[in-house]
């Protein structure tokens, strides 16, 4: 998530940090359920296999008994009636025996729900949960199809940050759409196992009126008429998906090693930001040098009516709702979100108590960029990190113990970045960046925890950094 700026005088330079980021389908038939007729080979979606766990911070979201392998979403947005019509086909591996299929979903009108071609007329949505009363057996995959329609609505953001809005699919004044959905909110536009530990593959097709465009996360898969298609062959957590619809213009670029980049913008306000977007190849080159090859086949940025930004996978969602555009600050935010493609997107935490594992790395990468850009010394960076770390620990507590009401506030950015600076100092640049590259490149597509990170660091370096890491993550005061 994009941090706001922390005004800190370092040799008369502001070092940016992180602050307080159609018509409806026919109704369900009352006819007797039909037997499943088609045997499905689920091996095509094996790469979407995860080990879901109950999230310790937001346990009401997600379902550890289900592992969604693949989402196939066919959506239609009608701006005049503000109606989203969808057909969601989910390939699901039950991670445990269960009496029903329970997923996160905003109360849309259900037009039809089937499990393996058998209609389930008693399926219902209540209190942001879709409950399909069909028993499932561990490791015996099923196909859930949900046809629905309705007007999108958001869900509250559990944070005191000043740069955030309600989560989920948001309708613009012009009748367009955009979404930010960390730590949850994907369920406001499709039925989802909305937790970070369940990564899945995606195929999405969005139909919009003539002259409009639709953008999602993933790799562009072509356009047919007014239908825009995207595919994600690399596993993605639901919070990293995005959807933007509007009268967009498109610019293209090319990153290191020929990585195709796409920039989506709309009016003159957005056009002022386009030169910064086009600096993406430089950002990626800087990050590849330190963390290894960019982990996805394409990249890009879409500008939306938000005050924040988000590391949505392969298609960063950046807010344009700023009082006064500052190119330098905006570009530092872009660098931060691109760093997340390695840390958070390629390698994702299993639960939100380890958000520091995303934000610490992305923030430290941002500080390294600023250090090089503004010619800051190691001592200046060290002094800034320690001073700010002390303030954040007093205000918000240690980074590995975030409170549910304080999602993505400054302690999970600054404090772990300070820890990584200590680790960098202890190892030296060569060994530190070798560690960082190995972490991403060997763990790509997985979900990780504090314990697995510490074990990896110790094995990779041949030294025991358990105490250093744990102290920085758990201490109520800045470690000596």
From TrEMBL:
Boundaries of every Aminopeptidase N-like N-terminal domain copy: 69-240
Name of this protein: Aminopeptidase N
Organism listed in the record: Paractinoplanes ferrugineus
Family: Belongs to the peptidase M1 family.
Pfam families: Peptidase_M1 (PF01433), Peptidase_M1_N (PF17900)
Stretches that traverse the bilayer: none
Cofactor(s) for this UniProt protein: Zn(2+)
Reactions that this protein is recorded to catalyse: Release of an N-terminal amino acid, Xaa-|-Yaa- from a peptide, amide or arylamide. Xaa is preferably Ala, but may be most amino acids including Pro (slow action). When a terminal hydrophobic residue is followed by a prolyl residue, the two may be released as an intact Xaa-Pro dipeptide
CDD domains linked to this entry: M1_APN_like (cd09603)
Enzyme class: hydrolase
Record keywords, A-Z: Hydrolase, Metal-binding, Metalloprotease, Protease, Signal, Zinc
Domain Peptidase M1 membrane alanine aminopeptidase: 279-472
Record keyword Protease present: yes
């Amino acid at each position: 998530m994009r941090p706001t700026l922390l005004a800190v005088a370092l040799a008369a330079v502001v070092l940016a940090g992180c602050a307080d980021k159609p018509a409806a389908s026919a109704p369900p038939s009352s006819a007797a359920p039909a037997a499943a007729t088609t045997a499905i080979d689920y091996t095509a979606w094996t790469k979407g296999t995860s080990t879901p766990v109950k999230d310790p911070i937001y346990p009401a979201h997600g379902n550890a008994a289900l592992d969604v392998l693949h989402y196939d979403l066919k959506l239609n947005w009608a701006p005049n009636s503000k109606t989203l019509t969808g057909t969601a086909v989910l390939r699901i591996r039950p991670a445990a025996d269960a009496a029903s299929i329970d997923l996160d979903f905003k109360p849309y009108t259900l037009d039809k729900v089937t499990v393996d071609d058998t209609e389930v007329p008693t399926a219902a949505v209540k209190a942001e949960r879709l409950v399909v009363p069909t028993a499932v057996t561990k490791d015996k995959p099923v196909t859930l199809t949900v046809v629905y329609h309705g007007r999108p609505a958001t869900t509250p953001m559990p944070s005191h940050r000043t740069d955030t809005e309600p989560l989920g699919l948001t309708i613009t004044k012009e009748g367009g759409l955009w979404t930010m959905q960390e730590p949850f909110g994907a369920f406001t536009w499709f039925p989802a196992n909305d937790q970070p530990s369940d990564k899945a593959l995606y195929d999405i097709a969005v139909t919009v009126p003539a002259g409009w465009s639709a953008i999602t996360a993933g790799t562009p898969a072509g356009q047919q008429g007014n239908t825009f298609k995207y595919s994600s062959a690399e596993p993605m957590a639901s919070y990293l998906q995005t959807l933007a619809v509007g009268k967009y213009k498109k610019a293209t670029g090319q990153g290191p090693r020929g990585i195709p980049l796409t920039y989506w913008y709309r009016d003159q306000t957005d056009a002022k930001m386009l030169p910064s977007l086009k600096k993406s190849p430089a950002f990626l080159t800087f990050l590849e040098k330190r963390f290894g090859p960019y982990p996805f086949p394409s990249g890009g940025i879409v500008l939306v009516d938000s005050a924040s930004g988000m590391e949505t996978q392969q298609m960063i969602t950046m807010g344009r709702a700023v009082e006064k555009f500052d190119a330098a600050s905006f570009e530092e935010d872009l660098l931060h979100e691109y760093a997340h493609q390695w840390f958070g997107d390629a390698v994702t935490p299993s639960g939100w108590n380890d958000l520091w594992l995303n934000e610490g790395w992305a923030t430290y990468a941002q500080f390294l960029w600023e250090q090089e850009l503004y010619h800051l010394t190691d001592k200046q960076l060290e002094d800034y990190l320690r001073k700010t770390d002390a303030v954040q620990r007093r205000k918000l507590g240690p980074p590995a113990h975030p409170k549910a009401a304080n999602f993505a506030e400054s302690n999970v950015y600054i404090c772990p970045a300070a820890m990584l600076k200590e680790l960098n100092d202890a190892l030296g640049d060569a060994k530190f960046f070798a560690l960082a590259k190995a972490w991403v490149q060997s763990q790509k597509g997985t979900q990780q925890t504090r314990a697995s990170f510490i074990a990896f660091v110790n094995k990779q370096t041949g030294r025991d950094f358990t105490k250093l890491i744990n102290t920085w993550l758990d201490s109520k005061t800045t470690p000596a």
